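Bumping my old thread because nobody answered last time. Still need a sequence for this structure:
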């Protein structure tokens, strides 16, 4: 399914043996060794938060082997991810090969940022993304900035793009991959019995990362995190109050990207699979995309969650589509 196709995108056809949405999803963790970026020069960037907390968000910049005058590409990981998530490294390698400098962003409190941040990211952490983009050195953004977000990072990206002001004027184009645009619906979906394995994996990582981070936790909150049996309970006892929300339901309502789509004026490609086992497709189906004219949507029947392992190429389909989208945006400017 395509909505407002401005670019000739390749058709997604799953390749053996990744036929189902679950197999497409699990392929990311069954792929063996992590994608190597050793041949590309790397340096670390540290960006202080603007909220006076003293937190310092971290990212790693990889440079291409040859300068192709491409925009700087920011990659934003999903829940329980970091700069070293395999899907992020795979995207980085693909775009580095095409001459893009790539900045792999750690959301606040994730990866190396866990030791330099007392606040942990959530689905609404768009201010952190805005701070990062606004603080980028001038020598990195001479050709503009493009951004690609995955899963929870894609929700943050869409929220950032739909909010007024901020640093979005620096962004030439964006790509959202499998964003949970309705957080309440996504939470309900992952709590289904058939998703028990996914739920346990996410919850265990959320707990471990939070308890081991530099986040200041009182005894009651620490106990609540330890005792949480579901992601909803985790968000109720920790995520919502730590970000000023009255409850998990209030957090989901205020931070879901679906509430910000109509405010987006940056050319944005929205990709999600109809068989995503984690992010339900129903919120995408009922969304009135006519009210968000800056968005172009690709909704293949299959592909799983940040999977899209298709025939004809070992490069994930979402990366190939994103490349075409960014090239299209570059020609429009």
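Sorry it took so long. Here it is:
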């Amino acid at each position: 399914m395509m909505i407002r196709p401005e670019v000739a995108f390749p058709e997604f056809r799953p390749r053996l043996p990744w036929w189902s949405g679950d197999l497409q999803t699990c392929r990311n963790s069954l792929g063996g060794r992590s994608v190597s970026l050793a041949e590309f020069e790397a340096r670390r960037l540290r960006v202080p938060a603007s909220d006076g907390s003293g937190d310092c968000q971290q990212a790693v910049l990889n440079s291409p082997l040859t300068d192709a005058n491409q925009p700087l590409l920011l990659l934003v990981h999903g829940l329980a991810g970091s700069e070293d998530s395999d899907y992020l490294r795979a995207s980085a390698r693909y775009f580095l090969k095409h001459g893009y400098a790539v900045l792999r962003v750690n959301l606040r409190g994730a990866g190396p940022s866990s030791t330099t941040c007392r606040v942990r990211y959530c689905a609404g952490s768009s201010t952190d993304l805005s701070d990062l983009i606004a603080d980028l050195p001038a020598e990195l953004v001479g050709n503009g900035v493009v951004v690609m977000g995955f899963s929870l990072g894609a929700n943050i990206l869409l929220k950032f793009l739909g909010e007024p002001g901020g640093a979005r004027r620096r962004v030439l184009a964006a790509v959202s991959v499998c964003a949970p645009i309705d957080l309440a619906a996504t939470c309900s979906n992952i709590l289904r019995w058939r998703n028990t394995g996914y739920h346990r994996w996410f919850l265990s990582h959320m707990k471990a990362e939070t308890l081991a981070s530099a986040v200041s936790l009182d005894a009651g909150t620490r106990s609540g995190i330890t005792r949480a049996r579901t992601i909803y309970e985790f968000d109720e006892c920790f995520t919502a109050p730590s970000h000023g929300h009255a409850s998990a339901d209030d957090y989901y309502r205020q931070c879901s990207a679906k509430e910000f789509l109509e405010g987006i004026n940056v050319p944005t490609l929205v990709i999600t699979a109809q068989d995503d086992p984690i992010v339900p497709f129903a919120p995408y189906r009922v969304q009135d995309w006519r009210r968000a004219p800056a968005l172009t949507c690709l909704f293949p029947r299959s592909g799983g969650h940040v999977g899209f392992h298709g025939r004809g190429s070992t490069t994930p389909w979402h990366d190939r589509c994103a490349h075409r989208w960014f090239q299209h945006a570059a020609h429009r400017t």
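The longest helix spans residues 196-212. Let me know if any region looks off to you.
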